[in-house]
Design brief:
Elements: H1 13-20, H2 31-36, H3 38-54, E1 58-63, H4 70-81, E2 89-95, H5 102-112, H6 116-119, H7 127-137, E3 148-154, H8 156-159, H9 166-177, E4 182-188, H10 193-196, H11 199-202, E5 209-211, H12 218-229, H13 238-249, H14 252-264, H15 268-285, H16 292-303, H17 307-312, H18 316-332, H19 338-351, H20 360-372, E6 376-378, E7 393-395, H21 399-406, H22 414-421
Parallel strand pairs: 1-4, 1-5, 2-3, 3-4
Antiparallel strand pairs: 6-7
Length: about 425
């Protein structure tokens, strides 16, 4: 069957949806991100507005695993507040993978501020003198008429590897001393980013950190899904496509697919990957509207990694720890560490006099095996360097996969299966 005319590369819903699902593209409706991260949105918007409106300098770091929407959230806030386009502020973006030293950083700052002609052939003795000259060049005669510079530092932790951390030191020093109105916003996946800073840099940082652990609920993921899939009437066959999307959002099968994404990663990036699977499946099969079965098939494709087989090969103790992790995730909806899992497991083992209780070293060994099998994944992408008992993790297995492993005949004692029932909702 050929591709229908309303799904051809030149027109129709499918090309438009694929364009929206490109890497790093935020949801078309920024309100969905506001609903996912209301507190972080409000704090960021206040920081940027105060910097651009009153010239109040400040700094903050947005911390969270890759793919949860840090860059998308910041871009939406900057767009809403008009940073860089309101005539009162200038936006400067730096990336740790591109600006690998201070010389490259100051060159990009100069280019983005469009001050190459002002710098000319001047020779500066230090990075601080160069940066000070650039900021002064933006002044209109007094502080009230100065333009606020909003610095966005992607992969912030990589800037901590620069020699003497000169760039960070000078940016934070300017922000703290109010030499010129600037706002420094860093983005990183490392929870231990403050430990990477030198003492003199840390003392000038505002210590304001905003944490994004992932989309908070399945309902929020559904809202993001609708934002990416809903098309304006200017797109060919948009009305038919939008009707199918509205119908899908009411189906339990789609809710189950979104719950699977939420349990695995809570990541906007993985949600977009799921949607790309669905759209490409439609394109390949020559269909113009999605069905709930397309989402189920996409989830199966994404999760086919042998995880279910690994779960079925775990020992009784390891399965008990997985059930304890499910309990913690269900109750607190936050990452867990070894001490939390050990305490949850201890509560169960203490109530069952017939169940064999294991010592702490044995439990730790089982916990480390789950980590080696990648059945639990670091909440910070593996960047933490703290004590292993307190490193935060997410459970990578879904409730359905855990249930299938626990309910196999003879897999675990009866009391463990009963304990698991309350965690596998």
């Amino acid at each position: 069957m050929g591709v229908p005319s309303d799904a051809s590369p030149e027109s129709g819903p499918l090309p438009e949806v694929l364009r929206r699902l490109q890497e790093h593209s935020p949801p078309p409706d920024p309100e969905t991100l506001r609903d996912c991260y209301p507190q972080q949105w409000a704090q960021l918007a206040e920081l940027v507005q105060r910097a651009a409106g009153t010239g109040e300098s400040n700094s903050a770091i947005i911390v969270g695993p890759r793919g949860v929407g840090k860059t998308a959230l910041l871009n939406c806030v900057l767009s809403e507040t008009g940073a860089g386009t309101d005539g009162r502020s200038v936006l400067v973006r730096l990336h740790g993978l591109l600006q690998t030293d201070d010389r490259a950083a100051i060159r990009h700052i100069t280019a983005q501020l469009k001050l190459e002609s002002a710098v000319g052939d001047r020779v500066f003795g230090s990075f601080a003198e160069n940066l000070s000259f650039l900021l002064k060049a933006l002044r209109g005669g007094n502080k009230e008429e100065s333009k606020t510079v909003v610095f966005v530092l992607e992969e912030f932790d990589l800037f901590c590897q620069h020699k003497n951390q000169t760039l960070l030191y000078n940016l934070f020093d300017v922000a703290q001393s109010a030499q010129a109105p600037i706002c420094v916003l860093g983005l990183t996946a490392r929870l231990d980013v403050l430990e990477l800073m030198e003492k003199r840099v840390k003392s000038r940082f505002s210590h304001r950190q905003l944490y994004l652990y992932g989309v908070s609920s399945v309902e929020a993921l559904a809202a993001v899904t609708r934002s990416y899939l809903w098309l304006p009437p200017t797109v060919t066959a948009a009305a038919r496509w939008n009707r199918s999307v509205e119908r899908l959002l009411q189906e339990r099968q789609l809710t189950a697919a979104l719950r699977s994404v939420h349990e695995r990663t809570r990541s906007v990036r993985d949600l977009k990957l799921l949607l790309r699977h669905v759209v490409l499946r439609l394109w390949r099969e020559g269909r113009s509207t999605p069905e709930a079965a397309d989402f189920t098939a996409a989830v199966t494709t994404m999760s086919f990694d042998g995880r279910a087989a690994m779960l079925q090969g775990l020992s009784v103790l390891e399965l008990c720890l997985v059930v304890a992790m499910r309990h913690l995730t269900q109750v607190y909806d936050e990452p867990f560490n070894f001490e939390m899992v050990l305490r949850e497991y201890g509560k169960f083992a203490g109530r069952k006099s017939t169940f064999q209780s294991f010592t702490r070293p044995v439990v730790m060994k089982a916990y480390e095996n789950l980590q080696n099998l990648e059945l639990i994944r670091p909440a910070d992408g593996g960047a933490s360097r703290g004590q292993k008992e307190y490193q935060l993790f997410w459970l990578a297995a879904t409730a359905q996969e855990v249930a299938a492993a626990v309910k196999r005949p003879g897999a675990v004692p009866t009391e463990v299966a009963q304990w698991a029932d309350s965690a596998l909702i």
